[in-house]
Specification:
The chain is an all-alpha fold. Helices cover about 65% and strands about 0% of the residues.
């Protein structure tokens, strides 16, 4: 019973101290999430014009990635400043679990639902129409 109490005290300690060795990896993760959200926003804006299924299924992806990046920046900053209750290990682990679940859901949507939607309804993805312009000139065509 003593080990369980120690584990819960470790997990829910309100001020766990500043000896957190993962500041740099967490900052890199949050920076990557923010950059991935911004780049996905550009990809989404270009692809939503002609791919209705992509537009419908991945509408909030860039917003969610940026919000998780900001959340991890906030958690690392509160951990660094040793602010009670916000620097708890529990919040960091729950946030990492939420990020993993979100990424799992988007990968599952892409591999199953999106591909099924493309196969079942090919009209939902409109091809970019290329119009061939007829050029008129005074010369006769060569045969």
């Amino acid at each position: 019973m003593e080990k369980v109490n120690i584990f819960f005290k470790y997990l829910f300690d309100t001020t766990p101290g500043s000896d957190f060795g993962y500041y740099l990896p967490m900052l890199i993760l949050s920076g990557l999430l923010i950059v991935a959200g911004i780049t996905f926003m550009f990809v989404y804006n270009n692809k939503k014009k002609y791919d209705f299924a992509f537009k419908r299924m991945f509408k909030n992806t860039s917003r969610n990635l940026v919000l998780f990046g900001i959340l991890f920046l906030f958690l690392v900053a509160t951990r660094y400043e040793n602010i009670p209750y916000f620097g708890m290990r529990f919040l960091l682990y729950i946030s990492l679990l939420g990020l993993a679940y979100m990424l799992f859901c988007y990968v599952k949507i892409h591999t199953t639902d999106y591909k099924r939607e493309i196969k079942s309804n090919p009209k939902s993805t409109l091809k970019k129409e290329v119009t061939k312009e007829t050029s008129y000139s005074a010369k006769k065509k060569k045969k």
